[in-house]
Amino acid sequence: MMSLSQNNTLPIPGDESNAQSLSKQTTCCALLTGAGRSAIAVIALWGERAEACVTHFFRCNRSRAMDVGQVRYGVWAGGSADTASPADSSSTERATTAGESIVVVPTAPQRYELHCHGGEAAIARILDDLSSIGVRRVAPHPLDGVPSAGRLPVKDPVDQRLIDEACAVLSQSTTVKTAAIALDQVRGALCQWRQRSIQLLGDDARRAAEIAAQTQHIAAAGRIGHRLTRPFDVVLAGPPNVGKSSLINAMVGYDRSIIMDFAGTTRDVLDAETVFDGWPLRLRDTAGLHRSDDTIEKQGIDRAMEAIATADLVALVTEPGLQWDHTLLEALERINASVPTVRVINKSDLSPVESADAPADALATVATTGAGIGNLLQTVVQMLIDDLPPLGRPVPINPRQWDWVTEIARLGEQPEQLIACLRRGELV
């Protein structure tokens, strides 16, 4: 158990300056929280002189020893502490110098978390103060911030790489559902499947086809797994003035797109991000698809077609009684025939949707009142994650892992190459 002295200071040798003494040690810090403004930021500090660095700047509001796992509130005195002599730091009186209010948590011997205000100025002050006494700032390791109890302990370097990559994805996941898939891999779902497969093949090479079949299901999950850190792209496409922009506004719950009662209002691709049922979506509002001689409109239509070409799902939007141009429909199919599509009849309050020309599976919506919006979002999500594996299953969570697993699935008739690929953990 580590503890600080009763007055929360650790004397620095008097024959060297603080900066000289600390700069000779391997002591590092890293900002664990993401970029941008936030309520609270967390800075990790570790190394041979981490305790000395904390006591150099931190003035605790209590005089009791600070042990691992305990939380202490106080003031980060900053630059004013630099000028204090070693004798001054041994005083048992509380510091009255104005500073940044922070919380300090020792997480292990010579390892701390500093919790401060999330503003850039507060973060920069602490990092600059630490740098001034020789602490080296580094990028956080993917495992930082993940409790050790939640990680699979491994010795195999291939498994360690899989765990590290899963931790990196976990740190960037923005919803509980995406984080849960990444956390399963941090806990070893993919690693344990790899080790079991190697053992089975070592015992009986004839089981290669069986393992390859299992791997096909794992590879299928990679379509979702490699997208955990970025939202699915859902493109709304259709003729002008059918309410695509109004649908976007209704789906995200605020006015993201400008809406007008004439064609051509949307001339570019506008994005709006939202989360539905735990899944991040990027909704893309596009220019109306129609024949036009207007140069600017034609550019907007070209960009709409480009967005459709890279979409994860396309919502084809129309309104009652409006016929689609068959030439445009054929063009859409040629661009991205493999991408799922959902038909939407917006403004369905204008006339019954059950008309002869309406597709049987079309969804009825009224963007201005919100009618049918929940059903539309639910359908979109179901179509995007229709092959989602149950929790706890192995899932490749980045393109490298996806390519590797896909290659294993292809090697079902070649047991020697299959086991070599499993052991290697990546493509040749």
What would you say this structure looks like, in words?
By secondary structure, this protein is of the alpha/beta class. It has three domains: 18-137, 2-Layer Sandwich (Gyrase A, domain 2), CATH 3.30.1360; 153-223 and 396-424, no CATH class; 232-384, Rossmann fold. Helix content is 37%, strand content 17%. It has 14 helices and 13 strands. It has a seven-stranded mixed sheet with strand order 3-4-5-6-2-1-7. A hairpin with a 2-residue loop joins strand 9 and strand 10. Helix 7 (189-203) packs antiparallel against helix 14. The longest helix is centred in the middle third of the chain and has 18 residues, at 208-225. The two termini are 47 Å apart. The relative contact order is 0.11. The model is unreliable at 1-24, 80-97 and 257-267 (pLDDT under 50).
Quickly list its features.
428 residues; alpha/beta; Gyrase A, domain 2; Rossmann fold; 3 domains; seven-stranded mixed sheet; six-stranded mixed sheet; 17% strand; hydrolase; tRNA modification GTPase MnmE; G_TrmE
User: pLDDT average, as an integer?
Assistant: 79
Estimate the global geometry from the Cα principal axes. flat
Q: Tell me about the biggest sheet?
A: 7 strands, mixed
**How many whole angstroms does the radius of gyration measure?**
29 Å
CATH class of the largest domain: Alpha Beta
Overall tally of structural domains: 3
| Total DSSP helices | 14
The SSE string, one letter per element, is HEEHEEHEEHEHHHHEHEEHEHEEHHH
Give the tally of β-strands: 13
